[in-house]
Amino acid sequence: MSLSGIFPIDKWEFTTQSVLNTLSEEDYNFLISRQGAQKYQKGEIIFKEGVVPSGIYFIHQGKIKKYKVDRSGREQIIYVANKGELIGYHAILAEERCPDSAATLEDSLVSFIPKEDFLTILDKSPVFARRLLKTLSHEFSVLANGISVISQRTATERLAIALIVLREKFKDEGSGEQEIILNISRMDLASLAGIAQENVIRLLKEFKEDGILETDGRKIWIKDIKRLVKKSNYG
């Protein structure tokens, strides 16, 4: 079932896929196709916060979490990037160290794109540059929205919103909307929702008892998206 009309998903996610669609075939091949792809196992780190970046990354397959770690070692997932997206470009554009870390949520295939190649295409294609700027602007709105949720929403509402957003991320994994499978650890789900892991386990059990979802190990199936949206108390 589509979220259209029942939940403003555009306020909760952004994507760089449309940015790449602005490139000519020649520029796309220069930036993406000629780069070698590296396999990453689930949980592998792609880059770490604080390092000096030498390039950006393109996701061919898999899902990548972008996250920050506080002084006590607790992880907060900022965003989950899908196949077809670019990551790591913020630090290049700002000429700063990486503001966050990135690691795989599942086995992934990722290409490294040297900084020089990225900047070459950015200079060569004004349309690409404008679309990337638009994406960055929307990204800021999404992140600001996420901050307000963590500070103002209950644990139940946070988890419901996290599950709704993840459902969109995992859509391409199923053969139909009724078969969308969220394959994510309880620790990562807690990190994304900004709540304790024990609360995630307790709330998932409650959602399951209410007929909203089913679980099998790490896997989660959303059975009643309308009731999940109601749990989010959004609107």
UniProtKB/TrEMBL annotation:
**The UniProt record lists the keyword Phosphoprotein:** no
- What would be one Pfam family of this protein? HTH_Crp_2
Q: Which InterPro entries match?
A: cNMP-bd_dom (IPR000595), cNMP-bd_dom_sf (IPR018490), Env_Response_Regulators (IPR050397), HTH_CRP (IPR012318), RmlC-like_jellyroll (IPR014710), WH-like_DNA-bd_sf (IPR036388), WH_DNA-bd_sf (IPR036390)
Limits of the HTH crp-type domain: 153-226
Instruction: List residues of the Cyclic nucleotide-binding domain.
Output: 19-139
Q: Which keywords describe this protein according to UniProt?
A: DNA-binding, Transcription, Transcription regulation
Query: What start-end ranges are recorded for coiled-coil regions in this protein?
Result: none
Under the heading PANTHER family, the entry gives:
CRP FAMILY TRANSCRIPTIONAL REGULATORY PROTEIN (PTHR24567), HTH-TYPE TRANSCRIPTIONAL REGULATOR ARCR (PTHR24567:SF74)
Output this protein's name: CRP-like cAMP-binding protein
Which species is listed as the source?
Answer: Mucilaginibacter pocheonensis
